[in-house]
Amino acid sequence: MFFDMMRDPAILVLCSIALAGCSGLPGLVLRDGTLGQRLASVAALTSSLLALPSLLYLLIGGGEASFLLNWNLPFGPCEVALDPLSLFFLIPIFLIFPAGSLYALGYWPAASHSSQRSVTFFYGLLACAMALVVVSRNGALFVMAWEIMALSGYFLLVAEHREGEVRGAGTVYLVASHLGGAALLVLFASLFMITGSFGFPAAGSLAVGAGLAATLFWLVLAGFGSKAGIMPLHLWLPSAHANAPSHVSALLSGVMLKIGIYGILRVISFFTERPLWWGGVLTVAGLGSAVMGICVASAQKDIKRLLAYSSIENLGIISAGIGMFLLGDGTGNQRLAFLGLAGALFHVLNHVIFKPLLFFCAGSVMHATGTRDLDRMGGLARRLPYTAFFTLCGAVAICGLPPFNGFASEMLLYLGFFGEARAGQPFVALGAPVLALVGGVAVISFVKLYGIAFLGEPRTAAAAEAHEATGTMLAPIALLACLALTGGLFPQLFLALVQPAMRVLAPGLARAAVLPIAPVWFALAGVSVICLAAILYLFLKAKTGGSAVSAPTWGCGYLRPSPRIQYTGSSFGAFFSSLSGSLIRTRITVGQVAGLTPAAVRLSYHPEETLLHRVVLPVLNVLGIGCAFVRRLQHGEVQIYILYIFVTLMLLLLWVH
């Protein structure tokens, strides 16, 4: 039994989930699309105002609640429950969902987009489905909510379905989602065979043999790892995030990827014993995803693809932290286990903040310039000063630099990796230089993004005429930037949310272990960086404060310099891209030059991921040819189908006898 004071906030959370799912319904009924969109935003904000205080109250106060839904369905009664792990992963949903709904009023208005009604409806349905996944305690209900989540994401992704690239991205996403869903069906069917019920086993109660445990782990990795974008299960992610509307990309990257992490943690919590090699697999896979993801990101000239590949990097860091926790738990190293799990969960919160911040900023840039191509931007800092400032905040945060929150969570992982060099397990310490490499390449990638897009001179007329985003777009951006700064200066506030969630996976760990560094040092480091930046700004402003003198100079042979001679996104990252040739290649298309006085021709170049375009797509093309051959058997004639049935029955009879 639970106290009423704990159940009342829990009921508010469940009501908020239902309100989020219904938020888009008025837009489907009302003729005035603008009114429907505004009502959806009001409903989203209301659900957040109801849910977030209740979630924080339950999480910090240690409250839990469960509810039994007696539906009399074949798979038995369905239980939904709120424990610290569920409460922790509900926070990102009710933070980003209302922020995206408010952002969409300026970015995706009903007057300009015919698909606004469906986007608004499925945006709320996606948030509701993700929340149902998190609170489900029944395998059948979990899979149903998972499929609703996958289908809602698909319809949001193909909002601009008239474009071939968008339809292709939607197809890849749908295939990957259903393959992952098939793995989850096998996983929960296996758990049903073991326990005799679709209900989730209690934490630490599942004891199975080594072979069966290994099978379940690989199913977990296939089903949830594909949703989290862990390489090489990430193939749907870059094109999906690049082609979806920016507020949808923020929800997909900021929240839906974390649902995959939640699934991994939830199923891992079932087991009494967790083999040591599980931690090794997750650590290697996570660090590999982090390195390869950011290397491919550094070569991108599409601003949203760059952000999409950096999501792979950050989810890799989170996966490596979970692997570090399993390694520490398996070897009895509490310090390693604590730093790994705390760093992973802390980075979940941080990524929820700075990645939607960057996607919102990218949407503002696209809204102002009409393009995702960095090479067609430039000089936007003067025209979009607020967006430029908030983009800089997000870039510093995602690079893991003080004073923003990315620094604090990555520092915990650094401390874990470096600590093992002294603990007699030097092989784990190899993760530290890998993480440093990831951070260095991230700096290269986001210096390119910010420098090419916001500095210099406009490269096109559209960039020269760019305008600042509206207030409804800037408000959620400013909120997320403030949260990113708060998490960097006062990490103890975020860690207060992390520690209750750790109790589900390691009950004694959250109470016994302590941080090896006092949180006050994060605040001092952050304040020092802010002061140093302010001094540098004032110095540069004073130095350039005098009147500017213009005079003709030697133009190096160019009588009329053009903005097109500036560095582009491709040229800036060309050297590093050449070092990552095994991961990425550049496809160059050049028009034919003919005649004595040839007309202007177009040269285009597109970075392509080697694994996707040289391995996966050729295999899919071969499978497509095979499916096209099988399709010939479908003539649409009933008598032919009867003949097929007859032949099949005869073959079965012969096989039986």
Automatic annotation (TrEMBL):
<feature type="transmembrane region" description="Helical">
    <location>
        <begin position="206"/>
        <end position="224"/>
    </location>
</feature>
<dbReference type="InterPro" id="IPR052175">
    <property type="entry name" value="ComplexI-like_HydComp"/>
</dbReference>
<feature type="domain" description="NADH:quinone oxidoreductase/Mrp antiporter transmembrane">
    <location>
        <begin position="140"/>
        <end position="413"/>
    </location>
</feature>
<keyword id="KW-0812">Transmembrane</keyword>
<keyword id="KW-1003">Cell membrane</keyword>
<feature type="transmembrane region" description="Helical">
    <location>
        <begin position="118"/>
        <end position="135"/>
    </location>
</feature>
<feature type="transmembrane region" description="Helical">
    <location>
        <begin position="140"/>
        <end position="159"/>
    </location>
</feature>
<feature type="transmembrane region" description="Helical">
    <location>
        <begin position="427"/>
        <end position="453"/>
    </location>
</feature>
<feature type="transmembrane region" description="Helical">
    <location>
        <begin position="519"/>
        <end position="540"/>
    </location>
</feature>
<protein>
    <submittedName>
        <fullName>Hydrogenase</fullName>
    </submittedName>
</protein>
<feature type="transmembrane region" description="Helical">
    <location>
        <begin position="638"/>
        <end position="656"/>
    </location>
</feature>
<keyword id="KW-1133">Transmembrane helix</keyword>
<feature type="transmembrane region" description="Helical">
    <location>
        <begin position="473"/>
        <end position="498"/>
    </location>
</feature>
<feature type="transmembrane region" description="Helical">
    <location>
        <begin position="277"/>
        <end position="300"/>
    </location>
</feature>
<feature type="transmembrane region" description="Helical">
    <location>
        <begin position="386"/>
        <end position="415"/>
    </location>
</feature>
<feature type="transmembrane region" description="Helical">
    <location>
        <begin position="85"/>
        <end position="106"/>
    </location>
</feature>
<dbReference type="InterPro" id="IPR001750">
    <property type="entry name" value="ND/Mrp_TM"/>
</dbReference>
<dbReference type="Pfam" id="PF00361">
    <property type="entry name" value="Proton_antipo_M"/>
</dbReference>
<feature type="transmembrane region" description="Helical">
    <location>
        <begin position="611"/>
        <end position="631"/>
    </location>
</feature>
<feature type="transmembrane region" description="Helical">
    <location>
        <begin position="244"/>
        <end position="265"/>
    </location>
</feature>
<feature type="transmembrane region" description="Helical">
    <location>
        <begin position="339"/>
        <end position="366"/>
    </location>
</feature>
<keyword id="KW-0560">Oxidoreductase</keyword>
<feature type="transmembrane region" description="Helical">
    <location>
        <begin position="306"/>
        <end position="327"/>
    </location>
</feature>
<keyword id="KW-0472">Membrane</keyword>
<feature type="transmembrane region" description="Helical">
    <location>
        <begin position="171"/>
        <end position="194"/>
    </location>
</feature>
